[in-house]
């Protein structure tokens, strides 16, 4: 489905002036629906209006000769306006009254136009509410002139999309993906954004379509919008990156274990004595710009990982998410709300944030399988093993329950209280010695990611690099034992069950994974940990059995013979042995960040 909208044609000379530079001041007396006669002004900042006239002013200068009920003054910024529509003959409600007498309503059919924008909700945090202001005048040309001037000013707003590819998951969450798209589609139509809508018919459909697009075809769009959940966005993201992003692989777990001195974090004294040997890799690796460039590559040696026709990262091409899933953690983290209208408005207004993406390479599916990178996946929110993998596996048996299946499956898995033996390696970064203004501050201070975040504001790296940490500020460490869960969060993963997320001060684009290791512990202690996760302002990391590390990369090897299952952005991913690395700001999103 493609949507095309034609601009209203008016006074070309006015538009030419507007398009050549800053919008000139314009002012006319018009009638504002449900308010009365106002003096409407347009400048480079936006529209503003102020009530005119009084009970003693009846000299006929009013555009309708009607006395307003009361004096009001208001405004709307151009950055908050997403459309203006000419209404031809429009019914305007005229309110009139004097002193303490009850007002009366009148109606008049005149020419008019409607300015579409938004207001921030006064009762719900981060929610954007649709707002429409209908102005009228008896003169047709006056209304057409205003529509043309406002449209010309909106055309000077940078970053707004003109053409989008939309994927709709019809059975995501509560199976209302199509209904949610129908609810927000008028916003795109009013904003004159062309949309090609694809309703998926099977698992993997969206990924296959994205992978089949040539770079030239994809460049005809300003971005891709998904209507679904976190897993559906992950499917589209993997289809996009699988054929376009070819960086070197992260290190193999065997490479890491050979590089660690005396067992890493299990031998802190040895690590302290050898701090000058960091990063505890071969000296030939020092000062390599990509950090892991000596390791295995996901392409041939001549592949630079950069398509000449489609650069990654790409500042202009962005992804948009309209929530229709079971959890929608990504949307909550990038907009602050799980609201389709808020997401749609941030898309058509061209908001932009960058997002870290984790690359996960599976070396072995099982303990007996061949050692080779058979599958490469990308994650935008979370990768979890143990408890998390068991919950996603168990929940598949109860898909008929909808989103409630996760609560039911989680309870069953919790009561089993299983643990798993594994070895985890991670790149330990000395945040005190690393001189990077974008790094998070040292604990205990917590800086929550929000709109205009200073930590996320720095420029992302090239598509083939992971963070280039100095040799004295990083080292590989390993830990081995029995774990209830192993989790790596790309973002905070805030959701309805964990209002602060897994890690409250995780950021959208800081170049770090939040590695969380839950070691074997009594069931009541683990319940206490989960209770803290579910509590606003809780501290789920403040337990002796919880390890938390900010790291750009980690490796994992299961020590058991049973099948190892990971939860990768809400999808099942089987891996006995894997490596993961994060790419800072690899993709851009249509979002402003949470306003908290």
What features would you describe in this structure?
The chain is an alpha+beta fold and 596 residues long. It is built from 13 helices and 22 strands. The protein has helices at residues 12-20, 140-155, 177-190, 205-212, 215-218, 230-241, 253-259, 268-273, 329-335, 340-348, 387-395, 404-416, 523-533; strands spanning 26-32, 36-42, 46-51, 73-77, 81-96, 104-120, 128-137, 163-168, 194-199, 223-228, 318-323, 353-364, 375-379, 382-386, 420-429, 474-489, 513-519, 546-551, 553-558, 565-568, 571-574, 577-589. The protein has a 15-stranded mixed β-sheet that branches. The longest helix has 16 residues, at 140-155. It is elongated, with a radius of gyration of 28 Å. Mean pLDDT is 81; it is low at 1-24, 54-62, 64-71, 97-104, 261-308 and 434-438.
Shape: elongated
pLDDT < 50 runs, ≥5 residues: 1-24, 54-62, 64-71, 97-104, 261-308, 434-438
The computed structural class is alpha+beta
Task: Please state the average pLDDT score.
Answer: 81
Number of strands: 22
Strand content: 25-35%
Sheet with the most strands? Answer: 15 strands, mixed
Distance between the termini: 36 Å
Cα-atom Rg, whole angstroms?
A: 28 Å
The number of helical segments is 13
Helix content: 10-25%
SSE topology sketch:
Elements (H helix, E strand, L loop, with lengths): L11 H9 L5 E7 L3 E7 L3 E6 L21 E5 L3 E16 L7 E17 L7 E10 L2 H16 L7 E6 L8 H14 L3 E6 L5 H8 L2 H4 L4 E6 L1 H12 L11 H7 L8 H6 L44 E6 L5 H7 L4 H9 L4 E12 L10 E5 L2 E5 H9 L8 H13 L3 E10 L44 E16 L23 E7 L3 H11 L12 E6 L1 E6 L6 E4 L2 E4 L2 E13 L7
Parallel strand pairs: 8-9, 8-10, 10-11, 11-22
Antiparallel strand pairs: 1-2, 1-7, 2-3, 3-4, 5-6, 6-7, 12-13, 12-22, 14-16, 14-20, 15-16, 15-19, 16-17, 17-18, 19-22, 20-21
């Amino acid at each position: 489905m493609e949507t095309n909208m034609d601009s209203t044609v008016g006074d070309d000379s006015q538009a030419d002036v507007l398009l050549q530079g800053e919008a000139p001041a314009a002012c006319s007396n018009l009638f504002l629906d449900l308010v009365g006669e106002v003096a409407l002004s347009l400048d480079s900042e936006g529209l503003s209006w102020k009530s005119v006239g009084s009970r003693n002013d009846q000299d006929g200068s009013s555009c309708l000769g009607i006395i307003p009920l009361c004096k009001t003054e208001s405004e709307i910024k151009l950055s908050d306006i997403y459309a203006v529509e000419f209404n031809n003959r429009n019914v305007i409600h005229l309110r009139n009254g004097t002193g303490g007498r009850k007002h009366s309503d009148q109606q008049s059919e005149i020419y008019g136009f409607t300015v579409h924008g938004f207001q921030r909700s006064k009762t719900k945090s981060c929610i954007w509410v649709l707002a429409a202001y209908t102005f009228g005048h008896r003169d047709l040309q006056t209304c057409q002139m205003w529509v043309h001037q406002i449209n010309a000013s909106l055309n000077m707003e940078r970053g707004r999309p003109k053409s989008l590819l939309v994927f709709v998951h019809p059975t995501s969450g509560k199976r209302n993906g199509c209904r949610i798209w129908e609810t927000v589609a008028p916003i795109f139509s009013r904003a004159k954004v062309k949309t090609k809508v694809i309703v998926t018919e099977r698992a993997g459909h969206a990924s296959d379509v994205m992978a089949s697009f040539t770079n030239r075809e994809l460049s005809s769009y300003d971005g891709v919008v998904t209507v679904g959940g976190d897993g559906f966005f992950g499917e589209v993201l993997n289809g996009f990156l699988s054929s376009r992003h070819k960086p070197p692989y992260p290190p193999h777990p065997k490479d890491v274990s050979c590089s660690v001195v005396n067992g890493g974090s299990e031998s802190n004294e040895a690590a302290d004595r050898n701090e000058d040997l960091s990063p505890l890799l071969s000296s030939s690796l020092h000062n390599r710009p990509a950090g892991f460039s000596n390791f295995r590559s996901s392409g041939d040696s001549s592949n630079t990982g950069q398509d000449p026709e489609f650069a990654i990262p790409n500042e202009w091409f962005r992804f948009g998410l309209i929530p229709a899933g079971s959890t929608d953690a990504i949307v909550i983290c990038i907009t602050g709300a799980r609201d389709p209208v808020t997401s749609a408005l941030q898309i058509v207004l061209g908001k932009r944030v960058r997002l870290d993406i984790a690359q996960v390479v599976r070396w072995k599916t099982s303990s007996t399988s061949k050692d080779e990178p058979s599958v490469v996946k990308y994650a935008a929110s979370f990768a979890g093993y143990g408890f998390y993998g068991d919950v996603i596996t168990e929940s598949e048996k109860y898909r008929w329950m909808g989103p409630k299946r996760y609560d039911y499956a989680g309870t069953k898995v919790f009561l089993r209280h299983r643990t798993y033996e594994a070895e985890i390696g991670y790149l330990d970064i000395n945040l005190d010695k690393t001189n990077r203004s974008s790094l998070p501050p040292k604990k205990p201070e917590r800086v929550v990611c929000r709109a205009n975040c200073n930590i996320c504001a720095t420029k992302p790296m090239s598509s083939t690099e992971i963070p280039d940490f100095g040799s004295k500020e990083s080292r590989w460490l390993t830990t081995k034992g029995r774990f209830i869960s192993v989790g790596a969060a790309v973002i905070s993963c805030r959701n309805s069950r964990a209002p602060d997320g897994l890690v409250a001060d995780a950021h959208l684009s800081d170049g770090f994974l939040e590695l969380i290791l839950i070691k074997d512990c009594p069931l009541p202690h683990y319940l206490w940990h989960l209770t803290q996760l579910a509590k606003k302002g809780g501290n789920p990391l403040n337990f002796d059995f919880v390890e938390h590390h900010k790291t750009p990369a980690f490796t994992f090897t299961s020590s058991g013979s049973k099948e190892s299952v990971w939860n990768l952005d809400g999808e099942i991913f089987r891996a006995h042995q894997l490596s993961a690395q994060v790419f800072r700001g690899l993709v851009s999103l249509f979002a402003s960040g949470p306003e908290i």
